[in-house]
Each structure stands twice: as structure tokens, then as C-alpha cells.
Q: What sequence folds into this?
């Protein structure tokens, strides 16, 4: 039995398996073959496969806390830029199995109702806790939908991931522009100003 492998080695292999082949590929025998060790090494660190799967899901659920910690000491104006850079780095790391992958977790949720329930709950928490970055829940939800689309397209077109910070910034600027236009329209609407007097026609009023 090879006990030189640590817990993180198995988690790394499991993240890659989940990303590349889905939850059915996260099996002790397959992971052991990928790591070129016997199954006994796995049971040195984990009770069973279910414990490993639970850890994979938990680390994804807890990931937001780490991101928020890195934003705590940043000024309000810098937080969004830093957050976008963190997301970009996180995608790169997740592709190598070093951090959880949104793409892998979303694919897992599509075939497991309980995982889907937990992912839905975690998403709502993320939107609620991050809404201050972009100025409100609706804007954050729109931003998050763009992120999901970016993750999905990145699976098919990996080079598209490099454009995410630019696309996210354009989205926020667009939302800001529409919000400003709506405010101007409200201020200029008939309900927002006194209506012009009805012109008096010839012959009216003596």
C-alpha cells in the first residue's frame, strides 16, 4: 500500500475525473489507476467513495468564502476588478484540478437531484453575498448568468475564457447605461414634470 500519497493527491485526481468524465468517473478503482497506486492508499485517507464525493461538493460550496476573504481589504472601487481577476485565475486552476470547477459541479447537478438542490442553494447565497459588487441583486443575477454561459462555452471553446473580464466589464457598463437612461426617461416623462398648457384655439375663450 502506497501511503506516500496525501489526501490532496486523491482530491486532485477526483476533481480532474469529475471535470473530464463526470461523476461516474470518480471511482476508487479508476482514480487508483490514474495515480498508479493500489486502492488501499485511498482508504488510508477516506472512508469510502461517498465521503470523497461529499468533500468535492463541500469544497465547491465553501469556495466563495475564500474569494470574499481576498476582497475584504480592498477599496470598493477595486473590489470588482480584483474579483474578475480572481475568477479568471480560478478557471485556470480548476482546469488543472487544483480548485473546484463550476462546469464539473453544474454537470453533476444535472444528473443528481440532491446535488442540484445544494447547488441552487449555494447559487442564491453567492448572488446575495456578491450583489454589492455590481450594485444590486438583479444586476448580480444577470452577471451570474453571464458567468454560467461563459463556463459552458469555455468547455467547448477554451480560448474564449480569456475574454471573460472584458465581456463582464462591457456587461456592467451596458447595465449602467440602461439604468441611467431609464432614470432620465422617468425624469422627463409626463408624470415627472408639469404638463404643458393646452393651446387655446381661435374662437375659444372669447
A:
Amino acid at each position: 500500500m502506497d501511503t506516500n500519497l496525501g489526501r490532496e493527491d486523491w482530491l486532485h485526481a477526483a476533481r480532474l475525473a469529475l471535470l473530464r468524465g463526470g461523476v461516474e468517473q470518480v471511482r476508487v478503482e479508476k482514480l487508483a489507476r490514474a495515480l498508479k497506486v493500489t486502492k488501499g492508499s485511498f482508504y488510508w485517507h477516506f472512508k469510502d467513495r461517498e465521503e470523497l464525493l461529499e468533500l468535492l461538493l463541500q469544497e465547491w460550496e465553501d469556495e466563495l468564502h475564500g474569494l470574499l476573504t481576498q476582497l475584504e481589504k480592498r477599496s470598493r472601487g477595486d473590489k470588482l476588478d480584483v474579483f474578475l481577476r480572481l475568477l479568471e485565475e480560478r478557471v485556470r486552476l480548476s482546469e488543472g484540478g487544483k480548485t473546484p470547477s463550476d462546469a464539473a459541479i453544474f454537470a453533476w447537478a444535472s444528473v443528481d437531484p440532491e446535488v442540484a438542490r445544494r447547488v441552487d442553494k449555494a447559487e442564491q447565497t453567492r448572488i446575495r453575498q456578491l450583489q454589492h459588487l455590481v450594485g444590486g441583486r438583479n444586476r448580480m443575477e444577470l452577471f451570474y448568468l453571464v458567468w454560467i454561459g461563459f463556463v459552458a462555452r469555455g468547455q467547448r471553446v477554451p480560448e474564449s475564457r480569456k475574454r471573460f473580464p472584458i465581456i463582464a466589464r462591457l456587461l456592467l457598463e451596458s447595465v449602467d447605461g440602461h439604468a441611467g437612461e431609464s432614470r432620465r426617461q422617468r425624469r422627463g416623462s409626463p408624470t415627472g414634470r408639469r404638463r404643458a398648457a393646452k393651446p387655446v384655439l381661435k374662437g375659444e375663450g372669447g
Remarks:
- The chain has ten helices and no strands.
